Amino acid sequence: MSKLLENKIALVSSSTKGIGLACAKKLAENGAKVYFGVRRLDAGQEIADEIIKAGGQAGVVYFNAMEPETFHTMVEDVIAKEGRIDILVNNYGSTDVKTDFDLLKGDTDKFFEIVERNLRSVYVTSKAAVASMVKTGGGSIINISSVGGMLPDLSRIAYGTAKAAINFLTKNIAVQYARQGVRCNAVMPGFTATDAAMNNMSEEFLKMFLKNVPLDRLGKPEDLANAVVFLASDQSSYITGETIPVAGGFGLPSPMYSEYMNMSSKG
User: Fold this and answer.
1) pTM for the whole thing?
2) How far apart are CA 47 and CA 14, in angstroms?
3) How far is the first Cα of the chain from the last one, in angstroms, to the nearest whole number?
């Protein structure tokens, strides 16, 4: 029985932990040869070796968000090794919790730095991938965005603005290269239970947050990975330009939803 992504070449940026790692492993499980775009090549190779030992295919290329030239060189390295790239997962994203607040309290220089780095990492990387995909019959780009790019908040103005821009960039790439067989979609995680997230959130915050999640649980990296595999595969061959929340329904109900939940729990 053939796998969904058999004979496909995939690249996932920032993929040694969390959502990126889950995506890379899931792509490999479904038959793709996966390249880890990582800063720590030894850590990436260790994971790649585990995939190879389990019967999959994997490799590593160098990516460092502090070195903008690697946004395109990691794609070019994959193409040099394989002759093409079929799947690109732009997983890198970051902010600075010490400076990314609201309009007045946030640091102006840091705002533009955060927006530029997040947006550039998708724009430049996608540009390099699309240039190859249009020559080899197409491909699928999946951008890891955030519900923070759809729902305004009281802080993280730079991160939210960057993700909103990435959502619109996703739609533009989809429209501009659909006739050449390139699809481009984004998944928007809600609160996802990665080690980094769980180590920085109090039990009190998590209980409060879950009152606003209709499915009543935190997301898992595998939830995002499953969506990525679907969007990478031919099962989604008629889907492009979409920004899909993978957030348990967060942001979907009436703003009074959490209050209703409080009332029903007390009743």
Assistant:
1) 0.95
2) 13
3) 52
User: What average pLDDT does the structure give for the chain?
Assistant: 95
The residue annotated as part of the active site, out of 92, 123, 159, 177, is 159
Look up residue 253 and give its DSSP letter: S
What are the Cα distances from residue 179, in Å, to 26, 131, 138, 174?
28, 14, 9, 9
How many whole angstroms separate alpha carbon 87 and alpha carbon 204?
39
* 123 part of the active site: no
Per 3-state DSSP, what percentage of the chain is helix, strand, and coil (rounded to 5)? Answer: 50, 15, 35
Q: What are phi and psi of 62, to 5 degrees?
A: -85, 130
| pLDDT-based confidence at residue 102 (cuts at 50, 70, 90) | very high
**Contact (Cβ atoms closer than 8 angstroms) between residue 89 and residue 65:** no
Q: In the predicted model, is pLDDT for residue 67 greater than 90?
A: yes
Question: Can you tell me the mean pLDDT for 214-226?
Answer: 96
